[in-house]
Amino acid sequence: MLLGAYRILPHSLRGYLLLLIVVTVLPAVLLSVYVAYQAYTQEKDAVERRLLESARTLSLVVDRQLGQAGAVLRTLASSPALIERDYAELHAQASKSLLDETSSITLVGDGNRLIMSTARPFEQALPVVKPPEEMVAALRTHELYISNLLSGIVGGDWVLLVALRLGPPGQALPRLVMSLPPESLNTILHDQQLPNSWNIAIVDREGTIVARSRRVEGFLGKPATETARAAIKTGIDGIFYSRALDGIESVGAFSRLPESGWTVIVSAPRAEVIAPANRLLLIAAICVPLVLIIGVALTAAISRIIVRAIERLVQDARAVGRGEIPSTRSTGLSDTQLVAETLRTSALRLKRGEEELLRLNETLEARVADATERLVASSRLEAVGRLTGGIAHDFNNLLAAIRINLDLVSRRFPDSKALDHARAARESTERGAKLVAQLLAFSRQQQLTPEPVDVNDVARTMAQMLRTTLNSVQLQLQLREDLPFALSDRTQLEMIIMNLAINARDAMPEGGTITLQTDRVRVDAVPARPEAPGPGEYVLLAVSDTGTGMSEEMLEQVLEPFFTTKEVGQGSGLGLSQVLGIVKQLGGGLRIDSQVGRGTRMEVFLPVVDHAPRPRQEVVEPAATAERFEHRCVLLVDDDDAVRQPICSLLEDLGCTVVAAASGAEALELARQGPDFDIALLDYAMPRMTGIELAARLREAGSVSRILLMTGYADAARLAESWTGPILRKPFDQDALARALEGELR
Length: 746
Fold this sequence. Notes:
This protein is of the alpha+beta class.
């Protein structure tokens, strides 16, 4: 359409202005229609959500009421009066346990004989009744049964039955049965604070109306509408449109009760649901054309002013082309007046343009130098990353040599004081190995190892490290002293605190205060947002700042992956989404409170753990004896003398015959000339030939079939890509070595 208008209109300023009016008005009309439709949809969806939330809430209330009946029956089932067949006492206890005056409890024995019923005095004789077949069949496999709406059981009145089987599975007798009139459920419906025009109905598994908030007398025992019954079969909850039993076009929401299989339906007149949306559409239908007419008139008036200014500017340009000085008369518009003045000073502007070009060239050189400097820095970081694996390997080799020699000292010189010192040094090597793994795994996704964690201890530890990195920002701690343990992964919790604290620091470029707070809280409300915590007991970890804060639009996107408010190159946008993923995996939640100019508060909820972590105890395993590995020949290959020699001593203490080599080439030569080896113990990271390459060469030569790989390399994922066999992690002791050998030599 626009292309057709472009071809028809003359190629003049007036024609283009007219086309501009069309191009401006048409999107405005479409946008107005779209906005009105979106408002209509949002208003309708809001009412539907309220209906669905009301149905879900009521389903929980009704399910709780029926659950109370089951709880009463279970209490009576464990009563000594029932066990001792003191039915008079059981009658008295049951009468006191009734939910209300309209309910009754009956004990049914063999042959469907009524043994006791609170509906009659204890001395009065009781008849034999015929129970519903569905209840008898259900009680053979289920302990508790909730019936549909029944009629004719007691005097022809409508009644609900809650039955509890007292015997083992496979038989339906004896049983305790509580009968409830539907009116007891109507009381629940009338207590709900819902609009008067809304209707609430409870239907049983067959779709029969059990209770109704409006005109229940005329609808009790009748089936719900066909549309409602069809919708109920589609899922646990949902929305449907239909004509209600009273003939009113309605919008309904349903939610199924988990225990009984009944369904709560909350409906509202359809006219009430769409009335606000229709008002919006009517307002849009009146206002949009009026605004468009005013806009077109104003645009036409403004276009005449623009045309006159352009015509005068054309006259000045022609004068410049003829070498004349343009007149100094005003064009009427500041923009065209500026162009006219530019024409009169063209020579000066040309000179300024040349100076600007030189300045841009200088700026370009500075930008190139800055980019080069950043590239060099990036290359250095990449080189450090490549060296990290090798550094970790060498450090773990040093720890392995220390650990093995300590183990040898402990076993060969079993002096009590020496053992204490050796044990302390061995624990230090374990902490060193964990430190290397944490440094390399800091930026990687790790599999969580949930355990009871003292959040206060983690907060104090991180506070000591953070104070050295927060510059002008102050850090305050508000820690609850009687804080319980939380279910968490200590390493990931440290990462969460670091991430939130750095974000808070970046939000305060002029300085401020970060508050790290812990507390024990209880959440009762159902979460309104996906990231919020569900009901339960939590340990709260809150990080607050006095920074710039975030707008509503930013809060809606802040948890999305790759969304960041930082400049390009200063943030990946993965921090908060990673925090949310860790917290949700632990069973907790996240809550954000932020206002522009007043700061941000990030609240992390971690589940409470009632028990403290078990203290680590020194496990004393039986010492390895030489008889366990007697006559076993081992090929040991490690390029580090400080590691190879103590490992050789460990193997000899275990009774093995050891042939040691310092490289892959030496190992292949020994394999060709030496004896048959039961197993080869190979280091992974060796120059010229890795342990994996050497293993393949040994297997090809048929020298040895069992291979045990030793490594201090921290990147386990990368190692797993090329090796599927057993791995012995450095540092290790003689017991770990013995277990690894036993696992391969069985």
